[in-house]
Design brief:
The protein is α/β, with parallel strands linked by helices. The chain is built from four helices and eight strands, in the order βαβαββαβββαβ. The protein has a domain of 120 residues: Rossmann fold, CATH 3.40.50.
Length: 193
């Protein structure tokens, strides 16, 4: 897939994640009962960075978890096969918490819908909010983010590639051309939402 333009470099990502951390603490009047939950894979790394920022701002470490929503997706037939974990699924203590779901890109809304379903399978939070690094539009479900790092209008033929250093070797957000889903690139926007 050919990439057209870099939308955010490492410094821009850092600023956006710091702004999101400030907005979260302002909207929730501090950190009481907050729980950040990153959607695997890249959302988990972004959630950790937001938690680090909140700790710098407030001096309090907010719990930060990650969640794999694969089993809750409504398009499993279109996804590359994944091994099913054996044993008990890890349960996150969400009851009574203000859960902040964190993901890299908001597109159709289907990933967020699956994440909300996964959270409710673990308990009843007092609220669920959504933090997204990039909102690219094209919603298929009535879902909107509470916190957005950057709004980027795109065509459906384009994709947003959020690169995380731990996974991809760099921190950047890139606008790419025609979408393709491959087993080697399962995080491609063509099935993410």
């Amino acid at each position: 897939m050919e990439c057209k333009a870099q939308l955010m470099d490492e410094a821009a990502m850092r600023r956006a994640l710091m702004r999101i951390a400030h907005e979260i603490t302002e909207k929730n009047r501090g950190t009481r009962d907050l729980l950040l939950v990153g959607i695997e894979r890249r959302g988990a790394d972004l959630a950790q960075r937001i938690c680090d920022n909140i700790e710098m701002i407030e001096g309090v470490r907010v719990p930060c978890e990650s969640i794999d929503i694969h089993a809750y997706r409504d398009d499993l037939d279109n996804l590359p096969p994944r091994p099913i974990p054996s044993g008990e699924t890890r349960r996150i203590p969400v009851s009574g918490k203000k859960v902040i779901l964190v993901d890299d890109v908001l597109y159709t809304g289907r990933t967020v819908r699956a994440a909300i379903e996964a959270v409710f399978s673990m308990g009843r939070p007092s609220a669920i909010q959504l933090a997204i690094l990039v909102d690219r539009g094209h919603r298929e479900l009535p879902i909107r983010a509470d916190y957005v790092g950057k709004n980027v209008p795109t065509s459906r033929a384009e994709s947003i590639d959020v690169r995380i250093a731990r996974i991809d070797g760099e921190n950047a957000v890139v606008l790419c051309g025609t979408q393709r889903l491959t087993a080697d690139n399962p995080h491609n926007e063509s099935y993410r939402g």
